[in-house]
Amino acid sequence: xxxxxxxxxxxxxxEPAAAQVAKELGWRLGRAEHHRFPDGESLVRVxxxxxxxxxxxxxxxxxxxxxxTVPLVFLGRTLRELGAGRVGLVAPYLAYMRQDKRFxxxxxxSNRLYAxxxxxxxxxxxxxxxxLHRIAGLESLFRVPARVQHAxxxxxxxxARNVENPFLIGPDDESRQWVAAVAAHAGARYAxxxxxxxxxxxxxxxxxxxxxxxxxxxxxxxDIISTGRTMIETVRLLRAQGSANPVCVxxxxxxxxxxxxDLKAAGAGRIVxxxxxxxxxxxxxxxxxxAEGVREMAARVSA
Length: 303
Ligand code: R5P
Description:
The chain is α/β, with parallel strands linked by helices. Helix content is 31%, strand content 28%. The strands form four sheets. It has a six-stranded parallel sheet with strand order 2-1-5-6-7-8, sandwiched between helices. It has a six-stranded parallel sheet with strand order 10-9-13-14-15-16, with helices on both faces. Strand 1, helix 1 and strand 2 form a beta-alpha-beta unit. Helix 1 crosses helix 8 (287-300), helix 4 (152-162) crosses helix 5 (176-186) and helix 6 (229-240) packs parallel to helix 7 (259-266). It is globular, with a radius of gyration of 20 Å. The structure holds ribose-5-phosphate (R5P).
């Protein structure tokens, strides 16, 4: 008898994305439970049989990683113990990638430690636009096959369809290539700013020489909106120069604390994110991209 092709589980906020990915792939949607005991410990339980499928996939956005990762690792390893074929992780957002060097002596290299932990529970990993500025590639962090996907096309298409006369603005020189790719998909011009971060919430933004919006709608694009300070300071600067309310577009809606409210209060126009992390600002679906990543990894790591 033909083996079932695959099962998709959603976990830690990844349930809606898992349902869409399962639909795109024509795979079964599995169910898992997570119970948190009063003392903070976790118990996970797989509710559907997994033994017959070639591939099992868990979709879990890894924002708030400290509370999600222990049960996620338990789930990956439990699926294997229950006889699942290859167990892959689709982490639309992958945490800890920004701590990619010892900025001060003695600090942890969190990106490597975190990738190592996930490698113990999954046979492959995919993620969308992780912060890899000083890293050769995701494969150099993980002990299992790992693949990066880019949201540049869905972002660019959304901007082209929804913003009249857009001019894209990236936060810093490190983002230049990525912003250029979004701008190409949007059919728009772009510029990148100069950013100095002095602390978690202390960011200074400078305009490059010759910066000119030429009457276009500013569209700030960034991979992560975390404290929101990068976008807030940019919005303030542009507003002070008399620009229209900038449209803010991010891949990962982390929005720590009051970041969303503060960004609105600073004078942002529409604030839009992908559904990599569930948030009221989500307007750009990544399901087709995630499903494409699963197809590729399933072909590469066949069971
Ligand atoms: C940094 O290099 C990233 O690309 C983002 O610009 C940064 O993570 C945004 O963080 P925040 O919202 O805290 O300013």
